[in-house]
Specification:
Shape of chain B: globular
Order of helices and strands of chain B: HEEHEHEEHEEHHHEHE
Radius of gyration of chain B: 27 Å
CATH class of chain B: Alpha Beta
Radius of gyration of chain A: 24 Å
Number of helices of chain B: 8
Shape of chain A: elongated
Helix content of chain A: 55-70%
Number of strands of chain B: 9
Strand content of chain A: under 5%
Oligomer: heterodimer
Number of strands of chain A: 0
Distance between the termini of chain A: 81 Å
Helix content of chain B: 25-40%
């Protein structure tokens, strides 16, 4: 029994340390509520919202391959379609808010960064028409 | 005795192989985890059932279109820039500040022929059948679609500029500054190679490229777009009846853009 006492004390200390650190980590996490995302336009998403939330990265990647390399463009499933439903219209936008705050807000929360809108247009078609932009 | 032994051995080997096959087929449909199949039995059939059959655009066939352009240099006038304006509006590239560096998907050049004859013609991506830009691309971002259009998949482009060096016509460009206004027709970005797409987004909708449409409306009707694989198309007929040749045919690039009235 004596032989194991040192091990027992050591193990106990390690467990206690984990518990304390975990508790502190949980305390720090209390403020991180999921963001409230801007309200989308339209009736429903292209997939079930559940599924889209989980699979949109792969889904978009597949679409960009099929559209660009295989030539199967589909305006209803393009990135512009996401923009048309999910962008915040110019009239309702706060000064520093990008049109696609919908994507940005959740990505900030989940620690993702995307560069899609460095090239892709992120203003909905409605805004473009007001600005006299070219429409496809 | 020895014969008997060999007979049983042969039999057992056969049976063994047969069992292996059986086990293999069973394993082929084996579910490793929910949604993860070692080999999904009805895969091909299921895939065919949920998508429209549609044309196989990954492989070219003699029946798939082969888009081409015929530029009549006898009609094109040096003062006219209708095609350039149309391209800028459609694809959202601005007036170049530094013509040696900034993108000019389509530009007018003047060529001097035998004697003192001069011809003005638009220069744009020649959509080669053997595109040197695609051969040198280290990421296969530049590729030729089955219908002959040479494109940059900007999602793969790493901005190495090999294609700009390989192109003998200098029609590949690299935006050096952040792009101010994103066009919904064609996404562009600093550091991704670009060039004429033959208005692939319009062609896939069944329309003509913007330059061709504008040249017919406001210019001199010098551009003709069509399907080189269709012997009955206006383009094929014009090429047959009046001729036209790609630039620098000595390079063996088999460009899809043809010029008439240069020789």
């Amino acid at each position: 029994m004596k032989r194991f006492e040192g091990w027992l004390w050591g193990g106990g200390a390690a467990v206690a340390l984990f518990a304390v650190i975990g508790f502190i980590a949980l305390l720090g996490d209390r403020g991180a509520a999921p963001p409230v995302l801007p309200e989308p336009q339209g009736e429903a998403c292209l997939l079930e919202a559940e599924q889209m939330r989980r699979e949109h990265a792969d889904w978009l990647s597949d679409r960009m391959h099929t559209a660009v390399r295989l030539g199967e463009r589909d305006p209803a499933r393009s990135l512009q379609a996401c923009v048309d439903c999910h962008a915040v219209p110019a009239a309702q936008r706060a000064p520093e808010q990008p049109p696609m705050a919908f994507c940005r807000d959740c990505h900030t929360y989940t620690g993702v960064s995307i560069g899609c809108f460095q090239c892709h247009n992120e203003r909905p078609k409605g805004d473009l028409a007001e600005l006299g932009g070219v429409l496809p | 005795m020895s014969e008997d032994a060999s007979a049983t051995r042969t039999l057992s080997r056969r049976r063994f192989l047969g069992r292996c096959l059986g086990a293999g087929t069973a394993a082929a449909g084996l579910l490793l985890a929910p949604g993860v199949w070692l080999l999904h039995g009805g895969g091909a059939a299921a895939a065919a059932a949920d998508g429209e059959p549609g044309p196989d655009r990954t492989r070219s066939s003699p029946r798939s279109p082969r888009w081409g352009l015929l530029i009549d240099t006898q009609r094109c006038s040096a003062e006219c820039s209708a095609c350039i304006d149309a391209c800028q509006e459609e694809n959202g590239w601005p007036e170049p500040e530094h013509p040696q560096q900034d993108p000019q998907w389509i530009r007018k050049v003047t060529v001097r022929g035998p004697g003192d004859s001069e011809r003005s013609l638009p220069m744009l991506c020649q959509h080669c059948q053997n595109p040197p830009c695609a051969s040198v691309c280290p990421t296969r971002a530049t590729f030729r679609r089955a219908d002959g259009i040479v494109l940059v998949d900007k999602h793969r482009c790493i901005g190495c500029r090999y294609c700009m060096i390989a192109c003998p016509f200098q029609v590949r460009f690299m935006p050096q500054r952040p792009v101010a206004e994103a066009s919904p027709n064609h996404p562009r970005g600093k550091g991704a190679a670009e060039g004429c797409t033959l208005c692939v987004h319009r062609v896939d909708r069944g329309q003509q490229p913007a330059c061709v449409e504008r040249c017919a409306a406001d210019g001199h009707g010098a551009l003709l777009f069509g399907d080189l694989n269709d012997p009955g198309s206006a383009l094929s007929e014009a090429l047959r009846d009046y001729g036209g040749a790609p630039l620098r045919s000595d390079l063996g690039l088999a460009a899809r853009v043809h010029y008439r009235g240069l020789s």
